[in-house]
Design a protein that fits this description.
Blueprint: H1 3-19, H2 136-146, H3 166-173, H4 176-185, H5 187-195, H6 207-224
Length: about 220
Amino acid sequence: MSVRGRLEAHALACREALDRDEARPPLPGDLTDLRYTDLADASLRGVNLAGANLSGANLTDAHLTDAYLFNVGLSSADLHGANLSGADLHGADLRSADLHGADLTYAVLRSADLHGADLRGAAGASDVPRAPVPGLAAAVLRQITEHPDTWDQGVWHSECGTAHCCAGWAVVLAGKAGKAAEARLGTASAARLLLGGEGHPFDPADRREVIPWLQARAAEEAGVQ
């Protein structure tokens, strides 16, 4: 049986398990490496793809409603027009994925990396930033240098709400758009999209890198503008 056929059979077994209120069966080990696989129009509703690497795969118009894709690698995958409504994409690597016209209604995107993803015409993704917020890096830089007591790289947001890390300040200073993005994506994933750039210094151990990174990013923004 082809890879597509085996995956569709696995998806059917997952749906049947869910109908019985049982856990979805795990993806067979020999199907975890699905890089560059052609799965266009595949019927994969409810499938359990946890642990799979689908980087570069063609999932154009695939049916992935209610699929479980926790921590799945989908970088550079073609998901153009794919139905991902209700899918669990928690922690998925979606960098540079083509999600043009995809349906992400109710999809779980917390901690997913959507850096460089094409979301044009995607449904259910209005709270996902499409482009960096102009001047945001400079605003975060001013905040933490002029008011260092409000910068705590060890927490996203302090309990009192007066101190934040680099990523935390990015979502706060981005206003309503930042709040909405954080609620859907989580602090780090939202801040990456809101700030733009590469190599974001969001870990506590990155404290020494934060100011130089923000300076470089602010200068880059100024040059582009």
